Amino acid sequence: MTSVDKGPRKVGPAPKHCWRLLRPLVAPMMLFVVWQLMALRLGNFLILPPLDAVVRILLNPFQDLLRLGSMVHNAQVSLVRVLLGYSMAALIGIPLGILMGYSARARAALQGVLSMLRPIPPLAWVPLILAWFGTASLATLFGLRGGAGYVYLSNIRVSMVFIIFISSFFPILINTMFGVRNVRRTLLDSALTLGASQGDLIRKVILPAALPSIFTGLRGGMGAAWGSLVAAEMLPGSIAGLGYLISHAQSYSRTDIVMAGMIAISIIGSALDFLFRLVEEKKFKWQSLAR
């Protein structure tokens, strides 16, 4: 009995799928290869430590570094600071943005002041913030003198939270105001025709329509907040956090810890942005379909 040749087999979509998953890793891998080759060629640990020295620190996240705690401990302190400043910016920026987007009078009254404050870089506030708050911490504000709460809250300096707040406030405010102002006029007229009150108009029409833009502002605000972390944690009074760890390691010529801290900041920031992208793709997919 002779076998029948059925011709070449068809290749399924698996290779394309694998390539789609691996493609984002190509550029980082090339960067790591160039890093390692340059480090070996320079032979100067202070200027550029080898990749394996930095990876060893990252693969031991609970190892104590320069008696400042582990990478995980410092990352937790940094996250708390960022979330506090970011939450304050969201709690103030979103309602203010809705007000300025909805009311022409409020916009005319506030836009001038906010337009003057917006171009000021967060670091320019540092001398004034230190004059206002000094090295006061949340433990000082809450009147704590001891205990576990005091140990933790004493690491959260008011000046650091304020820097993070300033950095994330304006992206949230501007995107919220933009979203409210760009709600389709036909939606507003239809709701008013059907007898909607001003409160119903804001809750049931304006907020849902502006939500994608508000979410974009929250995502940009988180990026700005996380980006200002190192500057905030270099202020006087800091004794923990990734930014402080980087600054302290630089004074000890530990460039490997400096670069490990930078990579940790990058990884956490990318993870936070990835979570925002997931929510955006899941909850606001209708926006791209409506275009």
Query: Uncertain runs with pLDDT below 50, 5 residues or more?
Result: none
At CATH level 2, the architecture is: Orthogonal Bundle
| CATH fold node name | MetI-like fold
Task: Describe the largest sheet.
Answer: none
Number of helices: 14
Q: What is the number of independent domains?
A: 1
Q: Note the gap between the termini.
A: 61 Å
Q: Any idea what the radius of gyration is?
A: 25 Å
Count of individual beta strands: 0
The helix fraction, in percent, is over 70%
Label the structural class. mainly alpha
- Under CATH at level 1, the class stands as Mainly Alpha
Overall form = globular
Strand content: under 5%
Going by CATH, what is the homologous superfamily?
MetI-like
Mean pLDDT: 81
Helix/strand order, N-terminal first: HHHHHHHHHHHHHH
